[in-house]
Design a protein that fits this description.
The chain has three domains: 4-101, no CATH class; 125-195, DNA primase, catalytic core, N-terminal domain (DNA primase DNAg catalytic core, N-terminal domain, Alpha-Beta Complex), CATH 3.90.980; 204-324, Dna Topoisomerase Vi A Subunit, Chain: A, domain 2, CATH 3.40.1360. The protein has eleven helices and 14 strands. It has helices spanning 4-7, 71-79, 84-95, 135-143, 220-226, 238-245, 259-262, 264-270, 287-294, 296-306, 311-324, and strands at 12-14, 19-22, 40-45, 49-54, 60-64, 125-126, 154-155, 166-173, 176-184, 192-195, 213-217, 229-230, 250-253, 274-275. The strands form three sheets. It has a five-stranded antiparallel beta sheet with strand order 1-2-3-4-5. A five-stranded antiparallel beta sheet has the order 6-7-8-9-10, with no helix packed on it. The protein has a four-stranded parallel beta sheet with strand order 12-11-13-14, with helices on both faces. A hairpin with a 5-residue loop joins strand 4 (49-54) and strand 5. The protein starts with a helix and ends with a helix.
Length: 326
């Protein structure tokens, strides 16, 4: 496995309390002055665990042999100049040792989040683009650059009342139905009615093992546009963070571009996630708008290029966006 002390740049000094001090590489990336006073510290717990703390900018992360490399530790390694492919190899190598470890002393124990299976609305039919009764729903999805055939969208065109104007999007978790949302297309409020369990993250089943990155957005159609995960609100609760941690990927949060949506930035940084606020046009308010205007690949590339954990960069871009929304 990798030797974290050899990866950290500059001089190191071991203290009597067991900490190895070094000039923390995180400070300049998080909007602070570069550390020149050896405010970073690494402490080992045997040969299989270590914890890193910066006593200047308060960044922290850890590593446990037998578990995958966490997003925050992954970010530390990136700041040290390690490329993502090498980090992924180390992460897979660590997992090969999982049977040798006693996890009772894990410094960051994970809570197991469970969801109950639920039924979808009665009389719901899978969208069929060849069915004339389904044309209005298929046209709506196509207008939003979403393929009606790429997800099991459902509709209820033959019932009375407003529900014949909705598209039902099933919520799945590990390939089981655990809820749904109804998106109404009649231009009336509310647009959405959700049946969502606490802690649920839409798009968990989209994520592939070979992917190193997971995009996290707010809206369900944003997630459908780029196979991302969606929180369905402008924050990330503790249970959702636990669900995302199961993916063992670098998390990049792409907020909606309004004041409410931008509130997720502070929480994302607290969790050690990256944030992306690309330089999109003023009329582009979210990921789905960007895909409609620019296309999938250009939107994805702009998100990856703008991703950062720098508080200064995020705040500057956030203020720029807020001014355009006044």
């Amino acid at each position: 496995m990798f030797d974290i002390l050899s990866i950290l740049p500059g001089k190191k000094k071991t203290t009597s309390s067991g900490w190895t001090s070094f000039n923390a590489v995180c400070c300049s990336h998080l909007g602070h002055k570069s550390d020149r006073r050896m405010r970073g510290g690494i402490k080992f717990d045997g040969q299989s665990k270590w914890t890193m703390n910066c006593f200047n900018c308060r960044y922290s992360c850890n590593f446990v042999l037998g578990k995958s490399i966490s997003p925050k530790t992954r970010q530390l390694l990136i700041w040290c100049g390690i490329d993502s492919e090498q980090i992924q190899r180390w992460s897979l190598e660590s997992l090969q040792h999982k049977d040798l470890l006693d996890f009772s002393g894990d410094v960051l124990p994970r809570k197991k989040v469970k969801f109950k299976e639920q039924e979808l609305p009665t009389d719901a039919e899978l969208i069929n683009v060849n069915n004339p009764d389904h044309k209005i729903y298929a046209d709506y999805l196509i207008k939003r650059h979403i393929d009606p055939n790429e997800y099991p969208f459902m509709v209820t065109p033959h019932i009375q009342g407003r529900n014949n104007n909705r598209i039902i999007v099933p919520y799945t978790y590990k390939n089981k139905i655990v809820g749904h949302t109804s998106r109404y297309i009649d231009n009336k409020l509310p647009k959405y009615i959700n049946s969502q369990q606490h802690g649920y993250v839409f798009g968990f089943d989209f994520q592939k093992p070979e992917w190193n990155i997971c995009l996290v957005v707010e809206g369900i159609f944003d997630a459908l546009s780029l196979n991302a995960c969606a929180t369905m609100h402008n924050t990330i609760n503790d249970d959702q963070a636990q669900v995302l941690a199961q993916l063992n990927k670098q998390i990049i949060v792409v907020p909606d571009r309004d004041r409410a949506g931008l509130e997720i930035c502070s929480r994302a940084l607290e969790l050690g996630y990256s944030i992306s606020l690309p330089n999109w046009h003023v009329d582009v308010k979210d990921v789905n708008d960007a895909v409609i205007r620019y296309g999938k690949l250009p939107t994805l590339m702009s998100i990856l290029q703008a991703a950062t954990m720098s508080k200064i960069k995020i705040e500057m871009q956030r203020k720029k966006i807020e001014k355009t929304r006044i």
